[in-house]
Amino acid sequence: MGAAIAAKELAKRRHQLLDLIGADGIAILSTAPERVRSRDTHYAYRPDSDFHYLTGFSEPESVAVLTPGGKHGEFVVFCRERNKERELWDGARSGPNGVISDFGADDAYPITDIDDILPGMLERSERVYYSMGVSPDFDHRLLGWINDLNANRQRGHAPSEIVALDHLLHEMRLYKSRSEVSVMRRSAQIAMTAHRRAMQACRPGMYEYELEAEYMYEFRRNDAQPSYLPIVAGGANACVLHYIDNSEALRDGDLVLVDAGCEYNMYASDITRTFPVNGEFSEPQRDLYEVVLAANKMATEAVRAGNHWNDPHDVAVKEVTRGLRELGILTGRLPALIRDGSYRPFFMHRTSHWLGSDVHDVGDYRIDETWRLLEPGMALTIEPGIYIQPRARGVAKHWRGIGIRIEDDVVVTRKEPNVLTKQLPSTVADIESLMSHSS
Ligand code: GLY
Ligand code: MN
Ligand code: MN
């Protein structure tokens, strides 16, 4: 039932990269290691996004090699061998043959043979495309192979350059295809269902972790998992931007800010809604909320091909500053308040980041020191907020301890912004209506 990326599209990505690296290049990608949580328990395994983007393969201890016109084929994988005993304990493995038949590899070898085989592949290349610094262990091994080739030059030839693979690959990942947008839409749908469920389940006296459980339930029953640690922040906890304790009781009369998105088939959603614990906004809460909502809507309108990356942020800053001024929280002339950054104690983060396989997805924000232009297929969040610290000076008491953020996921198109999270209530009326029809 779920949207996924087809084998054909994975092959297309590999061909695109093969074209970019050229005849005498070789690209090498090692996937993520398994990570120990404590002693002999592990975190759930998550492959490296770059590796998975090109291979669709999810097993640890794997290395992918792409070489245009390579003797062993253009797409070669090293992976774990099949092993009856280990598969009995840990589950099925593809093994080299499975990677050839199911993942389109031209050839595949046991990962234990990499020392014998990969140097021979490097020998035929001038440039090694590789992301240095992601895995220090693998960096070390790769440099070892290249050094050995250099030391034995009379036997053969060594590549003369290591080139940053991330530049090429991250530029590719920045532009989402139709099928990627479909998976992202599914990811957003699951997260929206979770937010709706939480709004309806929310009650004064409930603990933040109980509300978090509503999200977890909805994610897991849809084959998804959190794409980052959920923030469930009642009252003034919302003024701590990365509050993840989620340990306190939700109080009658407070707002709760929930920043929770999921990862589905390796694509993330990232959604924030802020709603009243008891189902009704108080007047000051509503006043501030309307400012954030206006900033969110206007910034979303600025997500258009040809606009600068920073345009939505500039729009959000202007709206937030204008709103804070109208409410008397800031005083002075609007242009000066914006120029001087007077809004920053209340809106201290940026409005957007790229979104994709990673919640803070890859891709440059600037090109040659200037903000890049938005182009169709780019996906980003729009997430303005206002946070009035509990001890904010010079701010009337009734505003203090209120934190609000409204975050949506948006794809740039040739026309209107494609808001993947549009169906999730964000207006005061829609939120109050949904919460009054609670389960
Ligand atoms: N959830 C992290 C963020 O909004 O960027
Ligand atoms: Mn975000
Ligand atoms: Mn978020």
Architecture overview:
This protein has 439 residues and is an alpha+beta fold. The protein has 2 domains: 7-173, 3-Layer(aba) Sandwich (Creatine Amidinohydrolase, Chain A, domain 1), CATH 3.40.350; 175-436, Creatine Amidinohydrolase (Alpha-Beta Complex). The chain is built from 13 helices and 21 strands. The chain has helices spanning 7-21, 49-55, 84-90, 95-103, 114-123, 136-151, 165-174, 178-201, 208-220, 283-301, 311-326, 334-339, 428-436, and strands at residues 25-30, 36-38, 41-42, 63-66, 75-79, 107-110, 127-130, 161-164, 225-226, 231-234, 255-259, 262-264, 267-268, 272-276, 366-367, 370-371, 379-382, 385-388, 402-405, 408-411, 418-419. The strands form 7 sheets. A 6-stranded mixed β-sheet has the order 6-5-4-1-7-8, with helices on both faces. Strands 9-12-13 form a 3-stranded antiparallel β-sheet. A hairpin with a 6-residue loop joins β20 and β21 (418-419). α8 (178-201) packs antiparallel against α9 (208-220). The model has no long low-confidence stretch (mean pLDDT 96). The structure holds glycine (GLY) and manganese (II) ion (MN) (2 copies). Residues 270, 353, 381, 383, 407 line the site of one manganese (II) ion.
